[in-house]
Design brief:
The complex is a heterodimer. By secondary structure, chain A is of the alpha+beta class. Chain A is built from ten helices and nine strands. In chain A, a hairpin with a 4-residue loop joins strand 5 and strand 6. Chain B contains eleven helices and twelve strands. In chain B, strand 2 and strand 3 form a beta hairpin. The radius of gyration of chain B is 29 Å and the shape is elongated. The chains are: A alpha+beta, B alpha+beta. At the A-B interface, helix 2, strand 2 and helix 7 of A face helix 2, strand 2 and helix 7 of B.
């Protein structure tokens, strides 16, 4: 093992090309993963932030707020479910926002939520005409104390502060009182306005793992109820995006495995006679192979380190609002671990060759 | 050439590993190319394939049809713009729909695009071309995108929108005319309005989302755009192609995939170049000996290049064969298709880059001095 590390230190050039290739593959893995994380985060933040045990939509809404209608009698049925402790209405409308100081055609996309139960890290609903804004809207020029105008009706909303990680459908969110939301909805989207006490969805707190099922049973199937994580997965496109990206990431890891296997197989062939000498001197196959594994892990770790740094730089260079990249330590570490596993497995290609080396072959070799 | 093939036959595993790596990379690149094109077509195909040369959004809509609302004063401004000839209302909504042709009774997110029908079934915003069946002749009829037919949206099938139960019969099929990567129905404007009201009894009269404009005589689409936009800062007119390209999300999808393609494209020549460089080092002594007994350097380089072309060619072939069945599938509602142009483009590019990357190894071969056969040194020295 020591020999392997000494070789890495004294002849780094021998491993340079493999490191470059692995760096590219590591960048790919981290970029793809961060892109997936960014897409999911920007679509689901508002749901993820819900401090709830269940989210209720009408049965035909396909987990879409704008297609969901919860009538007062349905809400009453939900409130009467055994184990339900708190029920709050929620609704949203997506509109363009005019920001003071921006050009007349330079609008920011916002999702205005009206809510009764405050999500995690979102304060209680502010007075009418005011809203908490997601901090991603700062990139569009939104500031605390500013009044922005929503939609074609130019509905004024004063920003009273910022919250984080509550984006929805790729748009920064605003969190306002139910009355404010209803007023803005009716003024700007008459086709989507709702009657008094009608909500798009319900946020429910209560007990029991079967709470969603009990709610749907109590409403005679008029609702489709999810846990928070279930509601996230049910957002149209989320599970499909995850599945597709994860498949691509999986094949990319397989490529890394093959590349590492190829590189170390070639390296082993090149050093067969040297390994013969080592074996003749008493080195075990396990020692030689573990040296290869150590080199593979070291090369992969260096490549991952460089790739991680480059992805972070890329994230900083990408202007806000373009590619939805979310670089997290978890993603970088996970990608590195996957690559290390691929590296160890890739080395296994060389194991058979190492085991086959005959110490007697050392006799008469020149190199 | 004999030498090149003999060597490959005797070191099957190492060459097979390289072929496998290249094949996987080619497969991934082609698959993602199809995914990108399928996503974009599914996302904005309906905009490309509708008949209005100019679409007018409200600025508030930010170039999303469903997000745009054209108020009556704005509509009047468009109709009186000098560059606007004929103007038609277009509405769009997303509904929960159950197609009768789906045996499982599956529900779908269904996009309904309503346009004002002319007496002949044509209309501003209608599908440009119907590949099967006909255009709607009245309310309650629709043309569907071809990608939706296998999901149970065939001609003669009906789609029931929930709740409310509005029923729309499919009478025609248009190619690549999806919107929002969901089954898309082109119907009369009144059908769209009925659909909105049936699913939401509280709804007021829906306003048109966008206006389709046919430029006035003497105006090109680009000139009509300028003319309409001059009417108000709240109007956002775009030519059909610009409306498709500038739909939010399209540019981001393209940018993301371009970065991914660039990285994959770099990995292929790197892997190939590394492989042949190491192999050249490994057989240094043999190459020196061959040179000493009279083998010209050109022949050795040719042998190397033949191996490069054969290996990359095999990788391209296997990668394409892996890609073919996948390209016939739909992935999460995105219809994939076999992209012949992409196969040709990437084959030429990767082969060229692969050959270029092997030139480092070729240079090593050319530097071999036959006299070193007498000293035991080779290119690796």
């Amino acid at each position: 093992m020591k020999l392997a590390l000494v070789e890495l230190r004294r002849r780094p050039g021998r491993f340079a090309t493999a490191t470059v290739i692995l760096t590219l593959i590591a960048i790919l893995l981290m970029f793809l993963g961060s892109l997936l994380d960014g897409l999911i985060a920007s679509s689901t933040g508002a749901i993820r932030a819900q401090d709830a045990d269940a989210i209720v939509y009408s049965d035909t809404a396909q987990a879409s707020f704008v297609r969901s209608r919860i009538e007062p009698d349905v809400r009453a049925a939900v409130e009467a479910v055994d184990g339900v402790t708190q029920v709050g209405g929620i609704g949203n409308v997506q509109l363009g926002a005019r920001i003071p100081g921006n050009g007349p055609r330079d609008l920011a996309g916002v999702a205005l939520f009206g809510y009764e139960i405050a999500p995690s890290d979102v304060p209680a609903p502010p007075p009418d005409g005011q809203a908490w804004a997601d901090e991603v809207l700062k990139a569009d020029g939104v500031e605390e104390g500013m009044t922005i105008e929503l939609g074609p009706a130019r509905s004024p909303i004063e920003i009273v502060g910022f919250v984080s990680d509550t984006s929805f459908n790729g748009q920064g969110s605003l969190w306002a009182s139910p009355e404010t939301w209803r007023e803005v909805l009716s003024a700007n989207r008459p086709d989507a306005q709702l009657g008094p006490d009608v909500w798009q969805g319900l946020v429910v707190r209560g007990d029991g793992d079967d709470l969603p099922a009990r709610i749907d049973a109590a409403t005679d199937g008029a609702t489709e109820t999810f846990t928070v994580s279930g509601a996230i997965d049910a957002i149209p496109g989320v599970s499909e995006q995850s599945a597709t990206f994860n498949q691509i990431i999986g094949v990319t890891i397989a490529i890394a495995l093959v590349v590492i296997g190829l590189f170390f197989a070639l390296l082993t062939v090149e050093r067969t006679s040297l390994y013969g000498v080592l074996k003749a001197l008493g080195a075990k196959s396990a020692t030689i192979f573990s040296g290869l594994v150590v080199q593979a892990i070291a090369v992969t770790a260096i490549a991952s380190l460089v790739a991680g740094a480059l992805v972070v730089v890329l994230d900083l260079l990408i202007p806000p609002g373009s590619i939805p990249l979310l670089v997290t330590p978890t993603r970088l570490v996970t990608s590195t671990l996957l690559l290390v596993i691929a590296a160890v497995l890739g080395c296994a290609f060389s194991l058979r060759r190492v085991l086959r080396i005959d110490p007697a072959s050392a006799i008469g070799t020149t190199s | 050439m004999f030498l090149a093939f003999k060597e490959m036959a005797r070191a099957k595993v190492r060459f097979a590993l390289l072929v496998a790596a290249i094949a996987l990379l080619v497969f991934l690149i082609l698959f993602q190319q199809s995914l990108q094109n399928g996503l974009i077509t599914g996302f904005i195909g309906a905009i490309r394939e509708q008949s209005a040369p100019v679409l007018v959004y409200s600025v508030d809509g930010q170039r999303v049809i469903q997000g745009s609302v054209i108020t009556p004063p704005l509509e009047e401004l468009v109709r009186t713009a000098p560059g606007a000839g004929e103007v038609g209302r277009i509405g769009q909504g997303t509904f929960t729909g159950v197609p009768s042709g789906n045996g499982d009774g599956e529900t779908f997110d269904v996009t309904v695009i309503g346009y004002e029908l002319a007496s002949d079934g044509e209309g501003i915003g209608a599908p440009s071309e119907v590949i099967d069946g006909r255009l709607p002749a009245g309310d309650g009829e629709a043309v569907v995108s071809d990608a939706d037919v296998p999901l149970g949206f065939g001609i003669g099938d009906t789609v029931t929108l929930q709740p409310g139960g509005t029923t729309i019969e499919i009478v025609g099929v248009a190619a690549n005319a999806q919107l929002n990567v969901s089954p898309t129905l082109f119907a009369s404007y009144d059908t769209y309005v009925d659909a909105v009201k049936s699913v939401n009894p509280d709804a007021g009269d829906p306003l048109p989302n966008v206006l389709g404009v046919i430029p006035a005589d003497g105006f090109s689409p680009a000139e009509a755009v300028v003319s309409v936009n001059d009417q108000s800062l709240d109007l956002d007119a775009l030519t059909r192609d610009d409306a498709a390209a500038e739909t939010p999300g399209v540019a981001q999808v393209q940018q993301s995939f371009n970065i991914i393609f660039l990285l994959y494209g770099l990995v292929v020549p790197c892997v190939t170049g590394l492989f042949f460089l190491i192999v050249t080092f490994q057989k240094a002594n043999s190459l020196t000996l061959l040179r000493a007994i009279g083998a010209p350097a050109g022949r050795l380089v040719t042998s190397l290049l033949i191996q490069v072309v054969v290996i990359i060619g095999a990788g391209l072939l296997i990668g394409t064969l892996l890609y073919f069945p996948v390209s016939q599938q739909a992935l999460g509602g995105v219809a994939l298709s076999f992209e012949t142009g992409a196969v040709v483009f990437w084959s030429v590019l990767l082969l060229t880059l692969g050959v270029l990357s092997s030139l480092v190894a070729a240079r090593r071969v050319l530097r071999i001095d036959p006299i070193e056969a007498t000293t035991g040194q080779g290119v690796g020295a």
